[in-house]
Design a protein that fits this description.
The complex is a heterodimer.
Chain A: E1 4-7, E2 10-13, E3 19-25, E4 31-37, E5 43-49, E6 56-57, E7 65-66, E8 76-78, E9 87-94, E10 103-104, E11 108-112
Parallel strand pairs in A: 2-11
Antiparallel strand pairs in A: 1-3, 3-8, 4-5, 4-9, 5-6, 7-8, 9-10, 9-11
Chain B: E1 4-7, E2 10-14, E3 19-25, E4 33-38, E5 45-50, E6 56-59, E7 62-67, E8 72-77, E9 86-94, E10 97-100, E11 104-109
Parallel strand pairs in B: 2-11
Antiparallel strand pairs in B: 1-3, 3-8, 4-5, 4-9, 6-7, 7-8, 9-10, 9-11
Chain lengths: 113, 110
């Protein structure tokens, strides 16, 4: 049913590790987004992309980085994970600007020990 | 000016009752107002949306009421069901930015 996929769904890993959270969509959407959300709580935009080779920082400062080499793929990387990075990360895409619905993945729940 | 204030933070409603969630915004340039529904373990999903040139939009049991002069909009869930228990987010958007409210946890008692 979902056209936007996030892997892994859950990740528990030690401090200092490099982590890449994967996000792929099959809808051909140009706009993609990463949000950080403590479970059931407020959504914070951390990165977004207008299209291939475009990446922008969101409203919430994040130590993560993103890349957009292909339309369908928008991975998020943490070079050195810390306990403060423990959270849920949601990926989304939309066909147009913010007046179009965003389609969300089911998230990656990240725990840094 | 970029905030969207959502209330209440949590809401408990009896089955069959009406659930009402309210949102207020400051920036009159916002031009799209969606509501998202999120179940535990899932990402948010668009529930219903409205543009400021319309005062009300209804889809099944879900209705958005929009008051442009008061800069407020609300979600009404008629005949609330236990399956409606979820977190609801209002939002407002302009150009390439969407601002979400802080969410309302709705619980429908069986």
């Amino acid at each position: 049913e979902a056209d936007i996929y996030q892997t892994p769904r859950y990740l528990v890993i030690g401090t200092g590790k490099k982590i890449t959270l994967e996000c792929s969509q099959t809808m051909g959407h140009d706009k993609m987004y990463w949000y950080q959300q403590d479970p059931g709580m407020e959504l914070h935009l951390i990165h977004y992309s207008y299209g291939v080779n475009s990446t922008e920082k969101g409203d919430l400062s994040s130590e993560s980085t993103v890349s957009r080499i292909r339309t369908e793929h928008f991975p998020l990387t943490l070079e050195s994970a810390r306990p403060s990075h423990t959270s849920q990360y949601l990926c989304a895409s939309s066909i147009g600007w913010a007046d179009q619905p965003q389609h969300f993945g089911d998230g990656t729940r990240l725990s840094i020990l | 000016q970029q905030q969207v204030k959502q209330s209440p933070q949590s809401l408990i409603v009896q089955k069959g009752g009406i659930s009402i969630i309210n949102c207020a915004y400051e920036n009159t340039a916002f031009d799209y107002f969606p509501w998202y529904q999120q179940f535990p373990g899932k990402g948010p999903a668009l529930l219903i949306a409205i543009r400021p040139d319309v005062s009300e939009k209804k889809e099944g049991r879900f209705t958005i009421s929009f008051n442009k002069s008061a800069k407020q909009f609300s979600l009404h869930i008629m005949d609330s069901q236990p399956g409606d228990s979820a977190t609801y987010f209002c939002a407002a958007s302009l150009y390439d930015k969407i601002i979400f409210g802080k969410g309302t946890r709705l619980h429908i008692l069986p």
